[in-house]
């Protein structure tokens, strides 16, 4: 990594952390703000969350090509400004329509930032340093979210709507700080239309069609959807409903479980990084599937009622902690793999597609609520099977990857030979 790349990476990571810090001020309190503080009820709050998801699903398919053609910097800046306007407007809104419009702007801005920032990290890293760069990004995001949430919890007061306006105002300022930081970043090469066009004529054009025909990427998108649906999609919906209805978990215990998840990520991130860097990515993902299988089995124990309330609470908190360890293993694995699979000039498109799959999984996650609340043991059994499926899908994905894509550490030993193999394993039509 050159000095220019290192300097750019530090600014990107700092901006990313400050943005997460700002988001942490509002994410835990959005439901309370809409439903109770503004007095609009639970359906209005649910509609706000739906607006977030819809805006992301609409914006992301259009984002990748813009990133590849114009570069990620203007995309991040534009998305940050849109998110800032949305956050501030949300804090000032007191009716359903203004809240939904504000949520659309905020949701679209946040969604578009993800692939654009990921592309910046790719441009400022090498295959050998990319794993650690994405691990650091995930670590800083969770640390920022956690600290922001803790401070926001001390400021917020349900009897004072102005306290919520202050939180959204802080979030809006942090988005503008991100835009300012990114504008000072000197990218290793100047993005332009010609730089974004693949040099290999056989790979030129095609867009989404070409990507879907890329067998390794298609399998990774399917695997990513299953991962996000089975983990992130259940955190605040199905799994929370299971804990409340089946395990009789109190809200305070649920809070401890979420804290255990964040704590596991923060503590384990760089410990597991050493393990991940030396292992094949496909096998790391498969191991995460097995860890999450154990997590779901422990969650099932918490719902059986054996051992009393204390044992159920401990099992439930352990479930969230195990999910955190799996997340810490995936953060330096999935995003770098997407970048390494992307043909030249298509990193933005591939990052946007993966972000779209994540948003789709999160949007469908609440489908687990009726099962988690009404048939808790069936709910656990389904996601035990899904987690085992993650392991199987990961091993099948490994068969499609070149050695350097599956295990980038090989580049340190024989960069030229492995790079040649990686080049030979360019997108293969199904």
From TrEMBL:
Return the SUPFAM superfamilies for the record.
MFS general substrate transporter
Q: Does the keyword Transport apply?
A: yes
The membrane topology of this protein is: Multi-pass membrane protein
Q: Where in the cell is it found?
A: Cell membrane
- Its main subcellular localisation, reduced to a broad class, is membrane
Record-level GO cellular component terms? plasma membrane
Location of the Major facilitator superfamily (MFS) profile domain = 8-399
Q: Which domain of life is it from?
A: Bacteria
Q: Which UniProt keywords apply?
A: Cell membrane, Membrane, Transmembrane, Transmembrane helix, Transport
Q: Report the protein name in the record.
A: MFS transporter
Protein source organism: Streptomyces globosus
């Amino acid at each position: 990594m050159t000095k220019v790349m290192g300097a750019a990476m530090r600014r990107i990571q700092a901006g990313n952390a400050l943005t997460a810090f700002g988001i942490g001020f509002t994410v835990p309190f959005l439901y309370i703000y809409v439903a109770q503080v503004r007095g609009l009820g639970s359906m209005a709050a649910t509609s706000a969350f739906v607006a977030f998801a819809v805006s992301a699903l609409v914006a992301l398919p259009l984002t990748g090509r813009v990133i590849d053609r114009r570069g990620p910097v203007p995309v991040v800046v534009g998305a940050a400004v849109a998110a800032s306007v949305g956050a501030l407007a949300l804090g000032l809104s007191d009716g359903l329509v203004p809240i939904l419009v504000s949520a659309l702007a905020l949701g679209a801005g946040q969604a578009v930032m993800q692939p654009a920032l990921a592309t910046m990290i790719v441009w400022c890293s090498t295959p050998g340093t990319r794993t650690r760069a994405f691990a650091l990004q995930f670590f800083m995001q969770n640390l920022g979210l956690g600290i922001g949430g803790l401070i926001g919890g001390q400021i917020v007061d349900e009897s004072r709507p102005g306290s919520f306006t202050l939180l959204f105002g802080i979030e809006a300022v942090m988005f503008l700080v991100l835009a300012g930081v990114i504008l000072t970043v000197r990218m290793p090469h100047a993005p332009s239309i010609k730089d974004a066009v693949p040099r290999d004529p056989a790979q030129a054009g095609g867009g989404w069609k070409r990507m879907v025909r890329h067998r390794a990427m298609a399998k990774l998108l399917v695997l990513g959807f299953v991962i996000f649906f089975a983990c992130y999609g259940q955190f605040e919906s199905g799994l929370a409903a299971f804990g409340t209805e089946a395990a009789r978990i109190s809200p305070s215990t649920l809070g401890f479980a979420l804290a255990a998840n964040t704590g596991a990520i923060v503590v384990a991130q760089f410990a597991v990084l050493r393990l991940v860097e030396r292992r094949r990515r496909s096998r790391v993902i498969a191991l995460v599937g097995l860890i999450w299988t154990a997590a779901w089995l422990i969650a099932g124990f918490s719902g059986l009622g054996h051992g009393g309330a204390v044992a159920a609470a401990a099992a439930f908190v352990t479930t969230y902690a195990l999910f955190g360890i799996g997340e810490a293993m995936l953060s330096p694995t999935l995003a770098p793999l997407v970048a390494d699979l992307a043909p030249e000039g298509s990193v933005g498109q591939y990052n946007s597609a993966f972000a779209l799959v994540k948003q789709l999984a999160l949007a469908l996650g609440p489908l687990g609520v009726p099962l988690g609340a009404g048939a808790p043991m069936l709910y656990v059994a389904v996601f035990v099977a899904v987690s085992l499926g993650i392991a199987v899908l990961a091993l099948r994905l490994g068969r499609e990857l070149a050695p350097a894509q599956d295990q980038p550490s090989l580049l340190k030993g024989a960069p030229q030979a492995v790079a040649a193999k990686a080049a030979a394993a360019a997108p293969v039509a199904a």
